[in-house]
Design a protein that fits this description.
The complex is a heterodimer of chains A (265) and B (426).
Chain A (H helix, E strand, L loop, with lengths): L15 E12 L2 E12 L3 E5 L6 H8 L9 E9 L2 E2 L7 H7 E4 L10 H12 L5 H14 L3 H4 L12 H13 L5 E5 L7 H14 L4 E5 L3 H7 L2 E6 L2 E7 H6 L4 H7 L5
Parallel strand pairs in A: 3-8, 3-9, 6-7, 7-8
Antiparallel strand pairs in A: 1-2, 1-4, 4-5, 9-10
Helix pairs in contact in A: 3-4, 3-6, 4-6, 6-7
Chain B lengths: L12 H43 L7 E7 L15 H12 L6 H8 L6 H11 L7 E7 L2 H7 L16 H12 L3 E2 L5 H4 L12 H32 L4 H13 L4 H15 L7 H26 L2 H9 L4 H29 L3 H5 L20 H10 L4 H31 L4
Antiparallel strand pairs in B: 1-2, 1-3
Helix pairs in contact in B: 1-16, 2-3, 8-11, 8-13, 8-15, 10-11, 11-13, 12-13, 13-16, 15-16
The chains are: A alpha/beta (265), B mainly alpha (426).
């Protein structure tokens, strides 16, 4: 069902990137997240799994304050990035999102050239002083996203002309171009075919060298393949959080066990 | 068991009836739809064919070509402004019809020319005084009754007392015609002349220029304001009771009868601000009031149609709200916005009532040089002509409507083209 060896990595000695305490999220009167505590480590892939509507995407969107754009959404509790409260009044969500990049479920490149897609973030944040700097950032980002070889000869062609898997890697390149510290991925492979999925998963494993990666996924196999830590959400609660190997082989909570064995969800 | 073809397990009588009724309802619905569309198409056909039927005669104009001897005794450089141009013209016809000598007959003979003929001759001689003493060839419009006669709109078998040309005049006309002096070329004057009391000289230039200025003013005001309002309402305004109220009012504004906007403009722009009456500037401002709700509604719809994934993508890399809107959403919404704007402007082009109230139905014989000059617009010009008693204006009214319809169809075609060319499928 999943290949176990990858799970046995030792991740205990890594630094904590995000720490969330007692996080609640409300959509109007509805409480979508009911008190979540979680620590997300650096250089680690953390997977959020759980049935539809369990709140895993909602929680992910708290980490870069994408929920701010929804009028009726209200977040309480404490979320710290490197010890700083990201919901503090002094924090500009725009700066935060440069540090915490995001990749979405459906590949959503801008209807612009491949180059402009990647260069957009560095441009608006003023990260490149010269054209040469920008060229270097674009190349480096595309290399990181394993897209350079396929895209280097067609940088001026529209990003929307790429295949689905290439588009998603372009979106990853776009996200890493602002040199983030954390990459949030909201079901990044759910719109891709198996081959593109495999490429993106391989990429996620490489990205772990430089970033902390948080991935929401519907596929338990995918969580098992790419992540070192897994968090199981159910009905707005974080039911269980631990090493991926332990969650999948020896879950402590019976709801987790029911889910991974396919009895709920 | 899933075989539903006719020879499978027979349906019960009740079921069969039910099925038949359902099919009949569907057929009836389709029939109604086809009938409605046929009716609309028939009405459109009747409208256009009646317009073309009466209007096509205004696209030609009967001209008379005469050899005019510019007699130095009648016309001289010293007294150019009031030279005897009429006498000179009269003489040119008398040369063809030597038996006419009575003073009253000569006056009627002169009536074959349009009233503008003498001015045409004067302008030629003012431009080139060396023509005095020479013979010039002049081709000028004939006056309206003879234009009607040439086009068959004045019937020869009507009793003489009931038509505007006498038997003698018809005889003159026929002789001139046989001499090859009478032609019926395309009537460019319809587009290049301004309005006139004389149908044969009246054209749409003043109305076209007036409409152009008014639409330009309308566009310059309503486009930026409309888009600004739409962007604020759609992207930035908090969703609360106030924004709901504003939204409802904008939708209501789009449904306010246009004559009300005319009254408002009369009171505010002319009464308060003291702007000139009959000016395309005021007309454009009035039309902008009406076009703005259309543009706001179209722009909001276009902004809404930009998929949220694009906003998320931009927000996700740290674009500010302002960068998302101006860098991504607005450019993607532009085709829709332009389409809405063109349709709004086309509506404004055909709008008559508010322009009547601010005096853009004045009788003005020169095209406006600026938006502040008095002018008419296409629809008000149609209104004026439709109101005029001369026979010649009947066909000119239809022709002017055809010109207006041509502009409207062109604008709508541009809108459709833009939409199909730039519309993005997500």
């Amino acid at each position: 069902m999943y290949d176990a060896p990858k799970l046995e990595r030792n991740v205990d000695d890594r630094t904590i990137k995000f720490s969330a305490r007692n996080v609640h999220v409300f959509y109007g009167e509805t409480e979508a997240i009911k008190g979540v505590d979680v620590d997300i480590l650096d250089n680690t892939v953390t997977a959020f799994i759980g049935p539809s509507g369990c709140g895993k995407s909602t929680f992910l969107r708290c980490l870069n304050r994408m929920n701010d754009t929804i009028d009726i959404c209200r977040v309480t509790g404490d979320i710290r990035l490197d010890g700083h409260d990201i919901y503090d009044r002094s924090v500009d969500p725009v700066q935060l999102r440069a540090k915490v990049g995001m990749v979405f479920q459906k590949p959503n490149p801008f209807p612009k050239s491949i180059y402009d897609n990647v260069a957009y973030g560095p441009r608006i944040h003023g990260l490149a002083r010269t054209r040469a700097d920008l060229d270097a950032i674009v190349e480096q980002s595309l290399r990181r996203a394993a897209l350079w070889d396929e895209a280097k000869d067609r940088l001026d062609q529209p990003g929307t002309g790429l295949s689905g898997g290439q588009q998603q890697r372009l979106c990853i390149a776009r996200a890493v171009a602002t040199s983030p510290e954390v990459l949030l991925m909201d079901e990044p492979c759910s719109a891709l075919d198996p081959i593109a999925t495999a490429q993106v998963e391989e990429l996620i494993d490489e990205l772990r060298q430089d970033y902390s990666v948080v991935i929401v996924t519907h596929s338990m196999q995918q969580a098992a393949r790419v992540s070192q830590k897994t968090a199981f959400f159910h009905l707005g609660h974080l039911v269980e959080f631990g090493d991926t190997g332990q969650i999948f082989t020896n879950p402590h909570d019976e709801r987790t066990e029911s889910y991974i064995t396919g009895r709920i969800g | 068991m899933t075989d539903l073809s006719a020879n499978s397990a027979p349906l019960g009588a009740a079921q069969r009836n039910h099925l038949r009724r359902r099919n009949r309802h569907q057929l009836m619905l389709q029939g109604f739809g086809i009938a409605a569309i046929s009716f609309a198409a028939l009405m459109l056909f009747i409208l256009v064919s009646s317009l073309v039927g009466t209007g096509y005669k205004a696209f030609t104009q009967t001209h008379i070509q005469v050899e005019v001897f510019v007699d130095p005794e009648e016309v001289s450089v010293e007294k150019l402004p009031r030279g005897g141009f009429r006498d000179v013209l009269q003489a040119s016809l008398q040369a063809q019809l030597p038996e006419v000598s009575e003073r009253a007959d000569l006056r009627r003979l002169e009536g074959l020319f349009s009233n503008g003929a003498q001015f045409r001759l004067r302008d030629m001689i003012v431009a080139d005084p060396s023509l005095i003493g020479q013979t010039v060839t002049l081709r000028v419009p004939m006056s309206d009754p003879f234009d009607q006669l040439a086009k068959g709109l004045v019937k020869r078998d009507t009793p003489e007392a009931q038509r505007r040309v006498t038997d003698q005049e018809i005889a003159w006309f026929d002789r001139l015609d046989q001499a090859g002096m009478i032609t019926q070329p395309l009537n460019w004057g319809l587009l290049t002349n301004a309005d006139s009391r004389f149908p044969e000289l009246a054209g749409l230039k003043g109305a076209l220029v007036g409409s152009f200025w008014a639409l330009l003013v309308c566009f310059l005001i309503s486009f930026p304001l409309g888009i600004g309002a739409a962007i604020y309402l759609e992207e930035f305004a908090p969703k609360n009771r106030w924004s709901d109220l504003i939204e409802v009012n904008i939708n209501n504004l789009a449904a306010v009868p246009s004559v009300v906007f005319g009254l408002l403009a009369l009171a505010v722009f002319i009464g308060w601000f003291g702007l000139p009456r009959s000016a395309p500037l005021v007309g454009g401002m009035t039309l902008a009031l009406m076009t703005m709700p259309t543009i706001i509604i179209a722009t909001r719809a276009a902004l809404k149609a930009v998929p949220p994934s694009i906003r998320e993508a931009a927000l996700g890399v740290g674009a500010s709200k302002h960068q998302v809107v101006f860098g991504h959403v607005l450019p993607l919404a532009m085709p829709g916005i332009l389409t809405g704007t063109i349709i709004g402007l086309a509506q404004a082009l055909g709008e008559t009532a508010p322009l009547l109230l601010i005096g853009m139905n004045a009788f003005i014989t020169s095209a406006p040089g600026s938006p502040l000059d008095s002018a008419t617009a296409l629809p008000t010009q149609i209104f004026i002509w439709a109101d005029s008693p001369e026979r010649g204006f009947v066909s000119r009214t239809s022709a002017a409507i055809l010109v207006l319809l041509t502009f409207l169809i062109t604008m709508n075609a541009i809108a459709i083209y833009l939409r199909s060319k730039f519309e993005r499928k997500w």
